[in-house]
Amino acid sequence: MAMWDQPAAPFIPGQYCVRIAQAAWERDGHFRLRHEVFCDEQQVFSRTDRDAIDDDAILLVATTCVLGSPHSVVGAVRIHEDEPGSWRGSRLAVQADHRRVGRLGAELIRLAVCTAHQRGATRFLAQVQVQNVTLFERMNWRSLEQITVHGLPHHLMQADLAHYPPHGLVETRMVRPLAARAMAQAA
Ligand SMILES: CC(C)(COP(=O)(O)OP(=O)(O)OC[C@H]1O[C@@H](n2cnc3c(N)ncnc32)[C@H](O)[C@@H]1OP(=O)(O)O)[C@@H](O)C(=O)NCCC(=O)NCCS
Known about the structure:
This protein is an alpha+beta fold. It has a domain at 12-123: Gcn5-related N-acetyltransferase (GNAT) (Aminopeptidase, 3-Layer(aba) Sandwich), CATH 3.40.630. It contains four helices and eight strands; from the N terminus they run βαβββαβαβββα. Strands 6-7-5-4-3-2-1-8 form an eight-stranded mixed sheet, sandwiched between helices. It is globular.
């Protein structure tokens, strides 16, 4: 088959940006991605994954960067304060083509917890799907208990805030290691 007859691989950029969503396109992209992951892919929710927490939550996004500018939303998470000093993160999602390539999930978790810490969190919790517990443990979270959420096995987990300094940044940028791209292309 000639090269131009082969299906194009999805565009995977060399640079990503993780930031607090402010513009309308970032917020729309955040909700669109959550719907794609939690309704269409995982079928945790049938019609919508949005709930009352979204009224007060801080929304974070991971975006691709093109020529240095944030371009399209490929990652999402939200955080909210559920009681004084106690914050929660939820709806962590990375678009399927961008998983395990740019550390987007890890950087969304990092900015989420650092942002809450900056805003006064003394405790940060999340209900983590069981297949992701190792990811969180490697990021200095510990399991408090096993629970069932939406009929699925989860762990209630707590972040060690000593590893999440309250740096006050609203954005971090990451350059994807070129070695990973070369390995993916060679595979
Ligand atoms: C879970 C999820 C957000 C992870 O995002 P991601 O961008 O693929 O993860 P990252 O690339 O940041 O992973 C960071 C590291 O953890 C590893 N990792 C990623 N997911 C992992 C998992 N489920 N278990 C163990 N390790 C994992 C990566 O390989 C990477 O390792 P490295 O540091 O050695 O390179 C993503 O897989 C996803 O959206 N899944 C579907 C929705 C979902 O499950 N949401 C979470 C609900 S709790």
